[in-house]
Amino acid sequence: MSRRQSHLAIAAFLLFLLIASSVVLWAADVTPEEVVAKSLDAIGSATARKDLKSRAIQGRVTYRILVGGSGAINGKFVFASEGQKSDYLFKINANGFLGEQFIYDGSKASVAGTYPDKSRSEFGNFILAQDAPIRENLLGGVWSTGWPLLDLDGRKAKVHSEGIKKIDGRELIALRYQPRKNTDLEIFLYFDPQTYQHVMTTYRMTISATIGMHGETSSARTNEARYRLEEHFSDFQVVDGLTLPTHYDLRYTFEGLSGHTKSIEWDVKATDIMNNRSIDPSAFVPQ
């Protein structure tokens, strides 16, 4: 490469950095309402979104224990959504653990027992106790026909700007999501500042417990139990005029009062995304 070509390459790279940083700075000043509007346009036209009535997704899933154990097993993922109703099935068979199934029938969330005795996993019990991800149609992101950003006013939910956040080296637009019904979870939605595609959601909850320490001198220490749920969306493709993710990563982490930590992952690759297909009503009825 000649010196002139080298200088041109450096100049082009610097121009790219300047444009990228300008995009991020501009995005920092965008209002929450503008972020929502742009994120919906990133999915598809208003007509395409309005015409959507139902969605069914099939794919492959890999279940991994990230902390508190080890191992990975492959299985099947099935998702059905119609209006405000949804059914999430992560199906495996690992020593009697059959995976997870979460159902929202439009008014109530339910979590299936997936062990032989019908008991639930730690993750399943967490979702049952903190059902906002299911009840608000947040889980699964824009895959859900009930995705709340499609009708914030109708849901009486609110979003608040959290500015630009750097996560894993990537700068993202952050919105805090506040549902109409109170929840113990802190919910944050993240968007790519260039495409405005929804790429991540996090749910956090902290429970504090104060333990008294008695002796000649009284003191107290505070321990905390932390819960974190993360959703990551990537590999966007156009299906029937709608731009949707085909890679979905769901992670659940629990840090107990005793210091015990458990972290698991459901890594999904969608192989079939079908819009406006007839869905059996029984899909939204807990078994």
Residues in β-strands, percent: over 45%
Strand order of the largest sheet: 5-4-3-2-1-12-11-10-9-8-7-6
Q: What is the CATH third-level topology name?
A: outer membrane lipoprotein receptor (LolB), chain A
Which architecture would the CATH scheme give at its second level? Answer: Clam
Specify the biggest β-sheet. Answer: 12 strands, antiparallel
Q: Roughly what is the average pLDDT, rounded to an integer? A: 88
Q: pLDDT below 50 for ≥5 consecutive residues: which ranges?
A: 7-26, 211-221
The SSE string, one letter per element, is HHHEEEEEHHHEEEEEEE
Distance between the termini: 66 Å
Q: Total strand count, please?
A: 12
List keywords for this structure.
21% helix, alpha+beta, single chain
Description:
This protein is of the alpha+beta class. Helices cover 21% and strands 48% of the residues. The protein has helices at 3-28, 32-43, 46-51, 122-129, 132-135, 152-155, and strands spanning 54-67, 72-82, 85-94, 97-104, 109-111, 158-167, 170-178, 186-191, 198-213, 219-239, 242-255, 261-275. A 12-stranded antiparallel β-sheet has the order 5-4-3-2-1-12-11-10-9-8-7-6. It is globular and about 45 Å long.
Task: Give a brief outline of the structure.
The protein has helices at 3-28, 32-43, 46-51, 122-129, 132-135, 152-155, and strands spanning 54-67, 72-82, 85-94, 97-104, 109-111, 158-167, 170-178, 186-191, 198-213, 219-239, 242-255, 261-275.
Note the topology.
Blueprint: H1 3-28, H2 32-43, H3 46-51, E1 54-67, E2 72-82, E3 85-94, E4 97-104, E5 109-111, H4 122-129, H5 132-135, H6 152-155, E6 158-167, E7 170-178, E8 186-191, E9 198-213, E10 219-239, E11 242-255, E12 261-275
Antiparallel strand pairs: 1-2, 1-12, 2-3, 3-4, 4-5, 6-7, 7-8, 8-9, 9-10, 10-11, 11-12
